[in-house]
Amino acid sequence: MRVFLTPFLLLAFLTLPLAAQNNHVLIAEQNAPAVVAINVVKNDGSTFTGTGFVLTPDGLIATSRHVAENALYMNITFNNGAVSGEAVSVAAAGNVDLALLKINARNLPYVTLGNSDTVLPGQNITVIGNPRRLQNTISSGLISQVRKKSDGVIWHQISAPISPSSSGSPVFNAQGEVISVAFASYKGEGNQNLNFAVPSNYLTELATAAGYVLPGAKAGAAPSEEATNPFIAHLQKSWQILKRLFQKI
């Protein structure tokens, strides 16, 4: 047993930088097809583009509330260039910047929601969005802080770069689960990467209140052993990397 474990553990430590880099690559590969551009014509005739992500195979989509507000018409563009029929707003949260849209579809790729109650400052994150309409742009950063507003609402402050048209972008943890939804930035001279996101548990609550069942949502779930033990998590990720390398030989 010792003969087997020693080289495996050595490889695990040697692949620490590769594992950190590979996380973002895997998250992008697995989730980019579920991230969409939301094309909006507002009631005043102006146009607007935001970001959203698919929650269910039959076309339930999450975005920021301000993306869908005062919309005369909306449709969805997927990362393969396909454009949906009309998207209809089916729910909006009153106290946070979240909304749900629905299109008629089947067998769509979709994301998995994580439990945002377990999010801690310093966590690595990956964001997939459409900044300046550059669809499926990948950025990374940290949870800079978990902030509680005076009204009790929680915000995630994030350091990942966010630009216009990225409202509604999913923020992923290291396990590839959506833990929040980007919606705002502090702009102005001297401000750098002061961005904010709505925790995913608010989204789970909104979907439940609207009568939707989300596959794989983890709101309120206890942290997994992998989430609480970084060494075990790293070993599992290293093994996944090895399997991917073997498959390419």
Structure description:
Helix 2 (16-31) crosses helix 6 (230-248). The protein has helices at 2-14, 16-31, 65-68, 200-209, 225-228, 230-248, and strands at residues 35-42, 47-54, 60-63, 71-77, 83-86, 88-92, 99-102, 124-129, 137-148, 154-158, 170-172, 178-185, 195-199. Residues 12-16, 221-237 and 239-249 have low confidence and may be disordered. It contains 6 helices and 13 strands.
Highlighted features:
249 residues; alpha+beta; Thrombin, subunit H; 6-stranded antiparallel beta barrel; 32% strand; Peptidase_S1_PA_chymotrypsin; serine-type endopeptidase activity; signal
**Proportion of β residues?**
25-35%
CATH architecture: Beta Barrel
Broad structural category: alpha+beta
Helix coverage percent: 25-40%
Q: What is the top-level CATH class?
A: Mainly Beta
CA-based shape:
globular
Number of strands: 13
The largest β sheet comes out as:
7 strands, antiparallel
The overall pLDDT, averaged over residues, is 83
The helix count comes to 6
Order of helices and strands: HHEEEHEEEEEEEEEEHHH
Any low-confidence stretches, pLDDT <50, length ≥5? 12-16, 221-237, 239-249
Radius of gyration: 19 Å
Keywords: Signal
Organism: Candidatus Avelusimicrobium gallicola
InterPro entries: Peptidase_S1_PA, Peptidase_S1_PA_chymotrypsin, Peptidase_S1C
GO molecular function, one term: serine-type endopeptidase activity
